[in-house]
Specification:
Length: about 400
Amino acid sequence: MRTRFKGLVKRLLLRSSRKDQIVGSFRDSGLLRLASSSTGNNARMILVQSQELGDMEENDAVSDQPLEDNSLDSFHSCKTSISSSDHLPIHGHPAAVEDSTASFNLRIYAVTWNMNGKIPHDSLPKLLENGRGDYDLYVIGIQESPVSSLRRVLHPILGKQYSFVAKSVMGSLQLYVFGKCWLQHHISAKKVDKVRFKGFGGVVGRQKGAVAASFCIGNSSFLFIASHFAAHEKKVNERHVQYSRTRQKIFSRPSTSQEQPGSNFMDESDVVVWLGDLNYRIEGSRGLVKSFVKQNLEKLLWKRDQLFNAVDKGEVFNGFVEGPLEFKPTYKYDVGTDDYDTSGKERVPSWTDRILLKIRDESSISLDVVNYQSIDSLRSSDHRPVKALLRVTNLS
């Protein structure tokens, strides 16, 4: 399944293999309508543009000062020369990155996982597709990590063709970026930041907040954010506040007279990937949700998803898009099984783990969501990992 979007539109498109055939859309109510085609459909959920929440109280979150990430540019394992066997998506040669008149393309593997305090060493390579080497960048967001750093665990899976680019760590909440070695001379302006949320969610091992890394490749700027929002079905508004606080605080700087009112670092980034345990839930009875999942009718649950509805109402994630939720809800499983929560709490299965995307100039940059899926073979946590395979084209 290949999902392609170009531009930000306020509708759900169900497309056949022919680009000009539209077989479904959002109605005025914003609810999902399904249509079928004999040639098969590629479904896409487009997260509609929304307005930001109002100003929040200053003590809702604490943001550390952005750090210039000069310590992260070692690339010491990289080859100094590039052979013809290397993946060179930039018009056949990486020098095109430095040519202001040339465009270039990147393939990105983004994955998020709440590890629930356990590292499955034997099966961890599945998180990164066993390091197949098909991607230019790996972006890895981790929540509830049992160790202070997973860099030395993750890097060997990818092998010597990849080098460490950046990390941003705040306790159990962690973000790592690895890149193909040929990128080493084209990455600049690296920096990291984090936003901490106060409250019970900040206990050791379950840190709530957001961590971020930013850098440029050529003239194009990238921003990656991994976050862990407040848990529990009823805390929708708290999650909204945490989104808005992150957007406001991440890489924040004093305003100047030259800046447009309301402009911020996120708006100025060419490509933004926001991933993590966002903790938005499916509203409805546990029995109903499990019944739909058992019948592979996940699409009928979209209109019950809190994040889907919040974006549709213009409350969060202005301008972001997401691939179709055609995989099973990723939380909460009995550890080691494919069974949803059988404890006394019997939590409603939900898509808590998400990857959202934003491009600044949709008229020039194109972003393909080649695949958006959960990784069901990793069962050591009560969450399933979620991966998005992305292709970004026409970068400069």
